[in-house]
Amino acid sequence: MIPRYLVNFDVRQLPQVHTDVIVIGAGIAGLFTALRSAENHKVLMVTKKSLLDSNTRYAQGGIAAVISDEDSPAYHRQDTLIAGAGLCSSAAVDVLVHEGPAGVADLIRMGTEFDMEDGRYALTKEGAHSQRRILHAQGDATGAEIVRALSERTKQDPNIEIWDDHFVIDLITDNGECYGALVQRPDGSRVIVHAKATILCTGGAGQLFRYTTNPDIATGDGIAIAYRAGANIRDVEFIQFHPTALCYPGAPRFLISEAVRGEGAVLRNINGERFMERYHPQLELAPRDIVARAIVSEMENTKSTFVYIDFTHESEETVKHRFPTIYEYCLSYGLDLSSDWIPVAPAAHYMMGGVETDLHGETAVKRLFACGEVSSTGVHGANRLASNSLSEAIVFGRRIVERIDRLSPIADLPHIREEQRSKDNAIQPVVEKKLKLQKVMLRYAGLKRHAQGLEKGYDELKRHVSIFDSCLAKREEYEFANLLICALLTTQAALIRQESRGGHYREDFPDKDDVVWRKHTAFNRANGITEGRIDDV
């Protein structure tokens, strides 16, 4: 059903470029890993838009690491495992909590300016964290500050070449080893990049859903190209819906950071009643999946399309100082965070699953690595702990570079010729197809799922698979093909898992079932579906 390559090509007919390391994608994972790789290697960064376009740029809350004397790796580990609902890899979590502080030190060395208070780093607390351990920048613009610092250094590094507006169509593999990538240039011509290591830093797949906090570029490309190349795709049923995205006519689903609730904001339904006490003892700071479903339940009960977040107990001065970006954004739509209740609703935010890797970021395909949201390292389990995503990217980025430093030189490119599609079978515009896919996913594979809906959704998605027989040529066509693969895998995984856990909730199986389901589901294009038990925590 899913072909090995999306387009026809012949390795011998295409121009070739040689480098040591290819980094696909920007964001914190791509920028950081490129900079660390460039200390010893020639690096080519390929981004489908630009260095500044990524999910990282929109990350408000911050980066979680043990900095304070009151905190410890053991506390951070425990919080991560609890949030992950029994599906975390304890080894991966240990790596994260012990190596996070050194990663943060790297970011500071590279020019990131985190907020200070009285001569020390200002730390805040977010949902499901037991301690204040979140470093932030410019109040609520942490991601933008990290991207600013790293992208400036990347542009100045003589060992890094940047190809903006290029699209990686597929990875070139032979006998389970990655030799590089097939890349489309802005003018539509194609080139093969040959490298000893290829690192996917392509982010998540928020565009699977009609309402998402992710930018337009989050189309699951890395997951889909890794799947076609033979990597394992694991735990993609676990999708985190951020509970509080702005829900206002004419406004995009802008994130209202969890840190706002961390600083004391409360949730109220359309009738003005505070409701979280009915759902969880941690109230507004319960794990994200619980808060998001509680909001949906209140919206259903009150026949409303949103609830309110109320931060009006704080002074205007405090609100402006702590959350300047959110304050200004809401104000541009006539909403004042310090005096108005802000209408919010859940929106697709983060994929816990992705391309399965080992503890050094390497996939089942040799010389192919994955870092950041595209990866499944085992850190997040069924539900990511807030602000662990930026930490994961730098910790595993460092480890990937250690592994690459030890790789032997790569052999010459194998001769590969792909010729399956008719040349004249162009496809209709994909804008409508994408919208249909997003509506199917929102309706049947969103926050609440059940077998009947998932089966119907899967059948509707399968109607689009004829796209793989077409002659694809444009970026939006490749993106749709990649989204479709992610949608099919996510729907299938959600149908298989007959329980509720973390970011996966089945109305027909509302309870967690550790006896049967404390395991991973992984998809492999050649070997089908496999299951993996959890190492005991």
TrEMBL record:
Residues 436-524 form the Fumarate reductase/succinate dehydrogenase flavoprotein-like C-terminal domain. Pathway: Cofactor biosynthesis; NAD(+) biosynthesis; iminoaspartate from L-aspartate (oxidase route): step 1/1. Its EC number is 1.4.3.16. The keyword Flavoprotein applies. The keyword Oxidoreductase applies. Its cofactor is FAD. GO terms for molecular function: L-aspartate oxidase activity. Catalyzes the oxidation of L-aspartate to iminoaspartate. The lineage of its organism: Bacteria, Bacillati, Bacillota, Bacilli, Bacillales. It is found in: Cytoplasm. This is L-aspartate oxidase. It catalyses: L-aspartate + O2 = iminosuccinate + H2O2. Residues 20-390 form the FAD-dependent oxidoreductase 2 FAD-binding domain. InterPro entries: FAD-dep_OxRdtase_2_FAD-bd, FAD/NAD-bd_sf, Fum_R/Succ_DH_flav-like_C_sf, Fum_Rdtase/Succ_DH_flav-like_C, NadB, Succ_DH/fumarate_Rdtase_cat_sf. Pfam families: FAD_binding_2 (PF00890), Succ_DH_flav_C (PF02910). SUPFAM superfamilies: FAD/NAD(P)-binding domain, Succinate dehydrogenase/fumarate reductase flavoprotein C-terminal domain, Succinate dehydrogenase/fumarate reductase flavoprotein, catalytic domain.
